[in-house]
Specification:
The protein has 4 helices and 26 strands. The strands form 6 sheets. Strands 1-4-3-2-5-8-9 form a 7-stranded mixed β-barrel. Strand 12 and strand 13 form a beta hairpin. The radius of gyration is 29 Å and the shape is elongated.
Length: 379
Amino acid sequence: MKKGLYIIAAMLLTLDACLSDDIDTRQDAQSDSGVEHNATLILEGGRRPFDDDIQTRAAYYEGWKDGDRLFIKFKNGSSTVSGIATYSADTDTWSISYYGTIVRNAKTACTVYYFDNPESMSDTEVRLSPVSAVYEDLSATYLCLSANEVYLETTLKCKTGRVRFIDVDNYYVGTDFRIGGLSCYTRYDFNNNTFETSEVTVSASSLDELDDEDDVYLPYVYMWFTNTTSRQINVYVLDAWENASYIYGRNCGTDVLAKGHSGYVHIPTPKARNGWTRMTYVEPKTYTVKGVTFQMVWVAGGTFQMGSETGYSSETPVHAVTLDDYWIGQTEVTQELWEAVMGSNPSKFKGTNLPVEQVSWNDCQTFISNLNQLTGQTF
């Protein structure tokens, strides 16, 4: 197909000298940004597999599923035209819909995005999760020869690496544990061509794949290290997450979650840490006031840089601040706890477990004083 494209393009260039009035390689004169155009998309290339650069076999492309979509930004001079191509497995063809004018009869740049396993997808946005893969090609090209056909040349590669966590010997089956220290894409805005990202904790509730009788494999997650310097992953077992029983940490090499590459990581257990370090912890303190229970969690002290060199005068200069170890409430003060201590609930948005609001600094001082008397502690 690519050879055929080049032949067609060469024929057009040959005809240009004698039929220049019939062929326009510039932006079309009319403005039809509000008009929907529908055409057949002829795809050259596709989606490359993971680790394709280390495969000894000839390069190949992954297959497509019915309903797969390509989100395309066509360049036309200084303008950009958005288009969405949809794959039909029944006919093994792509159709495209776009609004606006794209360049005719000249190979032109475009960008292409593909999303595998998104949470949801519409014509304007794509919602993503840790198990969603984002593929892109920022150097794709298109060639529109008629109103009915658009040729697209693209090689889509994943924007992230991927990793699969392995629960050795089914140690955590039936137990909720979580993996932190990783970030992922959470949303793609097609209109603005922008991505939103967030640090996301991967829950073990995704443990739904049993590859053999001994080990359990989480599905692949497509993420990167939140801290790109330390490249640390943390594993929180249920007791650690809610009662601070134990936490494991590991600093990973550059091969883990390298862009375009696959890997796996064994989750640590008390008997087999596999290179993980057990981290310091302190059990939280639990208090009960008039039947309402709340917890205080321990935070290790340390030194950090505070302030700004470019902000308000009250924020300058940047300076080192050192804090001792301290305790802090596991949650904001709930309306239930405030009412137990103060005897009333001033909040506008009522809810037992919602944070209390509509309170002043003086109200808070009174709350702390009353809480000290009720618990015999000094908060």
